[in-house]
Amino acid sequence: MDNIIDIDLIVRFKKVVAASANIIIVPHTNPDGDAIGASLGLKQILENLNKKVSVIVPNNFPDFLQWIEGSNEVIDFDQHKKKALEVFEQADTLFLLDFNDFERSEKMSKVLSSFKGETVMIDHHPEPVAPCNLIISYTQVSSTCELLFRVLERAGLLNALNTKGAEALFTGIMTDTGNFSYNASDPETYRIVAALLEKGIDKDQINANVYHTFSEDRWRLIGHSLKDKMVVLHEFNTAYITLTKSELDSYNFQPGDTEGLVNFPLMVKGIVFCVLFMEKDGNVKLSLRSKGRFSVNRFAREHFSGGGHDNAAGGKSPLGMNDVIVQFESLLPQYKIQLRNSFN
Ligand code: 5GP
Ligand code: MN
């Protein structure tokens, strides 16, 4: 059984759960498989413990996650702000899952920071800053879903996890590790997957739900991105892809369509750093990935108002696309040696 989590945190987690009756769960903006899996997994567990639970997302989440049990009860703050605020009025406890800074919930950050009840963070990103009452934050764990399983197991609450809850948690572990291809070298991860399989999940079906439901437009956008838009800078072991709003529109872009796209350039021999630049809401949004020791968390924090993990991060820029690219390329020479030695 897991032994990395401080026992004091487990004791406090159990106390908070026992004392709460009306709970809100919030994941980060643009919630991904881990954020949604953890939120809907915890919702089901807490409901099985007879709590009233609402999941409120800052904005909508992709279709390929909408099969997860409880999806149709999720409240989208972006579209139903009034209803969401009413739920906040009633709640005694707030869980933040898969993020550690109120700002990552963007439009919800004020509501979160002014919440008067108990606040619990469960997360695996570096440098937690949100001042929650209880912070369960371990960066070495593959995903928030895996961390949540570890917490529940230590807290003796696994009986409250049924098959549909286990499906939600498996989804987060699977997606945050890119189908078990990175951050997935801890044997504990597989012991937990085994336990989820014993709960009766159909792993192949989940894989198909998430990865085999691309629209035709989504595949063609990927084709266009790789064929026409990928720039490979071998000198800096770097590659990037740009997608403008009009390109996204011409492929009928839907949330989630570019999920995973940023990983392709890392499969080019010699490339250790890549960035996907996308026009979104008048800004350019960056998705950054690396292999080895080059930290995209640090790079995104220093230059693009962002952050994340050492090998996967995000950021943004108020500049236009062309100016962002000029800025990005001008930064690379100072990292040339670090990039060349990312594996040394
Ligand atoms: P993605 O590129 O998939 O959007 O995000 C990769 C990782 O970076 C995720 O763990 C995500 O939570 C984090 N991330 C994405 N955007 C931001 C951002 O603007 N700020 C911070 N601190 N983290 C981000
Ligand atoms: Mn995560």
- Gyration radius (Cα, Å) is 20 Å
Number of strands: 12
Biggest sheet overview: 6 strands, parallel
Task: Decide which structural class fits the backbone.
Answer: alpha/beta
Morphology call: globular
Mean pLDDT: 97
Taking strands numbered 1, 2, ... along the chain, how are they ordered across the largest sheet?
3-2-1-4-5-6
Terminal CA distance reads 34 Å
Estimated helix fraction: 25-40%
Number of helices: 13
Stretches with pLDDT under 50, minimum 5 residues: none
Element order: H for helix, E for strand: HEHEEHEHEEHHHHHEEHEEHEEHH
The distinct ligands, each listed once, are: guanosine-5'-monophosphate, manganese (II) ion
Strand residues, percent: 15-25%
In short:
The chain is an alpha/beta fold and 344 residues long. The chain is built from 13 helices and 12 strands.
Describe the structure.
This protein has 344 residues and is α/β, with parallel strands linked by helices. It is built from 13 helices and twelve strands. It has a six-stranded parallel β-sheet, sandwiched between helices. It has a six-stranded mixed β-sheet with strand order 7-8-9-10-12-11. Helix 6 runs antiparallel to helix 7 (187-198). The longest helix is centred in the N-terminal third of the chain and has 16 residues, at 33-48. The chain is globular and about 55 Å long. Bound molecules: guanosine-5'-monophosphate and manganese (II) ion (MN). The site of manganese (II) ion has 6 residues, from loops.
